[in-house]
Amino acid sequence: MNLNYMALAVPVFLLFIGLEYLISKKLGRNVFNFTSSITNMNVGVAERLIDMFTAASFYFFYEYLHEHYAIFDIKPGILMWVSLVLATDLIWYWYHRFGHEINIFWGFHVVHHTSEEFNYTAGTRITVFQAFVRTAFWAVLPVIGFPPAMITTMLIIHGFYPFFTHTQLIGKLGILEHVLVTPSHHRVHHASNEAYLDKNFGDMFIIWDKLFGTFAEEKETPKYGLTKQLGSHSFLWQHFHYLVELAYAVKRTPGVYHKLKIIFGRPADFDPELRGVAEKRFLSKHKVRTRSQKFRFYAVIQFALMVTTLFFLLLFEHYIATYIQIMVALTIFVTLINCGAILEQRRWVFYIEFMRASLIVLITFYYFPHPTTFLFLSALTVACLAYFSNLQKQYLSIIYGR
Q1: What pLDDT, in 10s, does the model give residues 77-91?
Q2: Cβ burial 140-165 (10 Å sphere, 16+ → b, else e)
Q3: H helices within 5-77, ranges in order?
Q4: How far apart are CA 163 and CA 121, in angstroms?
Q5: Count of alpha carbons within 13 Å of 144, Cβ hemisphere only?
Q6: Given a cut of 70, is residue 290 above it in pLDDT?
Q7: What sections of the protein cross the membrane (predicted)?
Q8: Were both Cys, which of 208, 212, 354, 399 would link to 93 (CB 3.0–4.6 Å)?
Q9: Lowest-pLDDT range, 31-35, 191-195, 210-214, 339-343?
Q10: Per-residue three-class SS string for 304-368
Q11: Rounded CA gap, 51 and 323, in Å?
Q12: CB-based burial, 184-203: b 16+ in 10 Å, e otherwise
């Protein structure tokens, strides 16, 4: 069978998250927060989903560059693999550093740093934009002459290794601290302590940080998240908040030169007051006030069903029609938005439910294109619209309690 075995990454990551959770409980370490962990993994689900539609195009992009612009004809060998590991990590270092030091790139990368907790769920928190920006940086590799097959293999390794550096349960690792990026080094990178800001950009090797003067050893206890915490679990807002703030800054700044100076300026020099302006414009203040925790259970059920669907979608992607892939992907994205809205106790979450139900109806009709099915689904839709207000009240009551 022509299965996509990369889908196994989903249960593997979940297994290690579960193990870390159990070990942290046994050790009495409070390193998990329910809402934050679900939010982190939701971001990871989106990245895996986007990767399904884009991975092949990235490979063909590398192949085109290698075929038409390669400077050297590099053949796989031990020395060349070692060279590729070092070259990939060096490019990652600068890609990652620019992601922290240039506003437009920080707007794409900030999603990874929004979490106020640091554990394996934060390791899954990879923005959907990262693959595109990263590909642009790594385009130099096929131009040098590295074959696309070698590059994509190395990208898989680079996708797995940093996941395991996102933990508070592993202390310093002796001699390895001098060469590899360890959990201790990466805790520094994710910290918002002033002494730790813009430090330890390496992905696999810490040597680049020591070489370019961006290394910091873990000494004081890290405080995780942003220097100005986001305070929102909205899937969309976590992805777009900084880009929206950047757009406001550019809009209010006269002159092309000064606009470009903001876009390519440093986040450290960015006006923090713009966060409040953007939140006032785009974040609804209408929440359901409840002490019930029922919505958490519903969020977990949604997440479990969504991840299961994602796993089988990835595993059998070569056997699933493109139309169904797109519709299921849209359903998952709507569910991600839905989960974020539920965790924030938004009243408008019912409209998202209605949108998701509509997508499921379209998927159902694809597999059962019978007039009876059409009539039944049409009647059901009309009934839901007719009793929309009552259904909304019942739904909010079930999710959030009375």
Answers
A1: 899 999 999 999 999
A2: ebbebebbbebbeebbeebbeebbeb
A3: 9-27, 34-69
A4: 9
A5: 16
A6: no
A7: 77-95, 136-164, 295-316, 322-343, 350-368, 374-392
A8: 208
A9: 339-343
A10: HHHHHHHHHHHHCHHHCCHHHHHHHHHHHHHHHHHHHHHHCCECCHHHHHHHHHHHHHHHHHHHC
A11: 17
A12: bbbbbbbbbbeebeebbbbb
Report pLDDT digits (tens) over 237-254.
888 889 999 998 888 888
How big is the chain, counted in residues?
A: 402
Start-to-end CA distance of the chain, whole Å, equals 50
Closest Cα to residue 20, out of 47, 41, 50?
41
pLDDT digits (tens, 9 = 90+) for 149-207: 999 888 888 888 999 999 999 999 999 999 999 999 999 999 999 999 999 999 999 99
Dist. CA 240–CA 19, nearest whole Å: 32
Rounded to 5 degrees, what are φ and ψ at 74?
A: -85, 130
Cα separation, 333 vs 24, in Å, equals: 31
Token pair recorded at residue 235:
């899937």
Backbone dihedral angles phi then psi of residue 310, each to the nearest 5 degrees: -60, -45
Asked if residue 223 has pLDDT above 70, the reply is yes
Beta-bridge partner residues of 287 = 346
pLDDT, position 287: 64
**How much of the chain, in percent, has pLDDT values that exceed 90?**
47
Q: How far is CA 2 from CA 7, 316, 317, in A?
A: 12, 8, 9
For 86, counting Cβ atoms within 10 Å of its Cβ (0-12 exposed, 13-18 middle, 19+ buried), the class is: middle
Instruction: For residue 15, report the phi and psi dihedrals to the nearest 5 degrees.
Output: -60, -45
